[in-house]
UniProtKB/TrEMBL annotation:
Argininosuccinate lyase C-terminal domain sequence ranges: 363-431
Protein name listed in UniProt: Argininosuccinate lyase
Catalytic activity, as annotated: 2-(N(omega)-L-arginino)succinate = fumarate + L-arginine
Recorded superkingdom: Bacteria
PANTHER family: ARGININOSUCCINATE LYASE
Enzyme Commission numbers on file: 4.3.2.1
Enzyme class: lyase
Organism: Hominifimenecus microfluidus
Domain annotation Fumarate lyase N-terminal: ranges: 6-300
GO terms under biological process: L-arginine biosynthetic process via ornithine
Compartments (UniProt record): Cytoplasm
This protein's pathway: Amino-acid biosynthesis; L-arginine biosynthesis; L-arginine from L-ornithine and carbamoyl phosphate: step 3/3
Keyword terms of this UniProt record: Amino-acid biosynthesis, Arginine biosynthesis, Cytoplasm, Lyase
Main location: cytoplasm
Length: 448
């Protein structure tokens, strides 16, 4: 059962075995472990360290293990310590003594470093697809809503009018940066650690660049101690995942607000909502709340790994085995959240009438009223003061700036004429904002 029984005279205590084992969670690395072994054996034969016959026997065994694990015919046996020992032992069972040559010039330290890198590399496209599906969904909604007015907020107070397309466009940009963060970390981590051995390389004439090429890495890593003890790329990944969750969480928070009785900007679909066991009227935004809640869990995994790594001397230490559960859970969580969130947004209904009414209230056109004065030669600071006084008058009368009679405007400044109403209309406020990245520019951006 053990790869290292030779120097031991006693059996491992059962509790020690259970505490030490990682097979219960690293068995999901079986594809990557076998892919790495296939490359390693291919390289050993090219270098004359194994014969071609030995190589072929081992490859046949590894491929049959892969097929059996894929089909479920072969299940991990928890008496083994980790996925590496399990596969090697099974190989020896299948092909006999030649299987014992698989681990020539290799350590589990460079093996596990490779497996995790391959796993992360395999998951990045899954994350990319999840993000891109969400971006496509947002873009479809944006294209249909370049003229859907809504209030834009600062301090959660109505600030200036904008559009649904513009508001969603902000999230679109966040997810675009998330994609580029994943691409960056992929590029940085894409160096092959195999051949680093336990920490100091090996005396066998390994061709590390060849193995790296077989496994589609840009190159082999440059320092064997760093190769087996580097977990930076997992911290990069957890950090990128945390940022994705932060974006999803902010978005969830807005959807929860918008779906509330007070806002009523959106209505979540029944298929993406849940009810209350006591209050019959309730329809709750549980999916958005769970996405917001799971953000804490992903941040936690980032903090945990940073803390695990901070005091470790070179090179490999068993502490590093603690990298796996957090990384796996963070990946699973983010992939699920992206899928659920996209489905929720896709099925959500927008109450455009409510949004537009809300945009017209709360003096969101006050800046534009001040700009009107500026366009007629009034210095901006004076214009700000004049409109401030008009807002007070309106508050007093319980009306909006568009409803204020021209006499009231003229009473405070003779500059005002009938065209003030056009200048502060919702259409002008939104659609004349044509600067790059502003709501008006989204109209031309999506004009086909
Ligand atoms: N299960 C171990 C891990 O995840 C594999 C490497 C073990 N290496 C060792 N020298 N004990 O880190």
């Amino acid at each position: 059962m053990k790869l290292w029984g030779g120097r031991f005279t006693k059996e491992t205590n059962q509790l020690v075995h259970s505490f030490n084992e990682s097979l219960s969670f690293d068995s999901r690395l079986f594809r990557q472990d076998i892919r790495g072994s296939i490359a390693h054996v291919t390289m050993l034969a090219k270098q004359g360290i194994l014969t071609n016959t030995e190589r072929d026997l081992i490859l046949e065994g590894l491929n049959s293990i892969l097929a059996d694990m894929e089909s479920g015919a072969l299940q991990p046996d928890l008496q083994y310590e980790d996925i590496h020992s399990f596969i090697e032992a099974n190989l020896i069972e299948r092909v006999g003594d030649v299987g014992k040559k698989l681990h020539t010039g290799r350590s589990r330290n460079d093996q596990v470093a490779l497996d995790m890198k391959l796993y992360v590399r395999d998951e990045i496209p899954v994350l990319n697809t999840g993000i891109m599906n969400l971006m496509d969904t947002l873009e479809t909604i944006m294209k249909e809503n370049v003229h859907t007015y809504m209030p834009g907020f600062t301090h959660l107070q109505k600030a200036q009018p904008t559009t649904l397309a513009h508001h969603f466009g902000a999230y679109y940009e966040m997810f675009r940066r998330d994609l580029s963060r994943l691409a960056d970390l992929h590029e940085r981590m894409n160096e092959c650690p195999l051949g680093a051995g336990a920490l100091a390389g090996t005396t066998y004439p390994l061709d590390r660049e060849y193995t790296a090429e077989l496994l589609d890495f840009n190159c082999a890593t440059s320092n064997s101690m760093d190769s087996v003890s580097d977990r930076d790329y997992l911290i990069d990944l957890l950090s990128a995942l945390s940022i994705i969750m932060m974006h999803l969480s902010r978005f969830s928070e807005e959807i929860i607000l918008w779906n509330s009785n007070e806002y009523q900007f959106v209505e979540l679909d029944d298929s993406y909502s849940t009810g209350s066991s006591i209050m019959p009227q309730k329809k709750n935004p549980d999916i958005a709340e769970l996405v917001r809640g799971k953000t804490g869990r992903v941040y936690g995994h980032l903090m945990a790994l940073l803390t695990t790594m901070k005091g470790l001397p070179l090179a490999y230490n068993k502490d590093m085995q603690e990298d796996k559960e957090g990384v796996f859970d963070a990946l699973d969580t983010v992939i699920d959240c992206l899928t659920l969130f996209t489905g929720m947004v896709k099925t959500m209904k927008f109450r455009k009438d409510v949004m537009e009414k809300s945009a017209a209230k709360g003096f969101t056109n006050a800046t534009d009223a001040a700009d009107y004065l500026v366009n007629h030669g009034v210095p901006f600071r004076d214009a700000h003061g004049i409109i401030g006084q008009l807002v007070l008058t309106c508050l007093d009368k319980g009306i909006s700036l568009d409803e204020l009679p021209l006499e009231d405007y003229k009473a405070i400044s003779p500059v005002f004429e009938e065209d003030i109403y056009d200048a502060i209309s919702m259409k002008t406020c939104v659609e004349k904002r044509m600067t790059l990245g502003a709501p008006g520019e989204y109209i031309t951006r999506y004009q086909d």
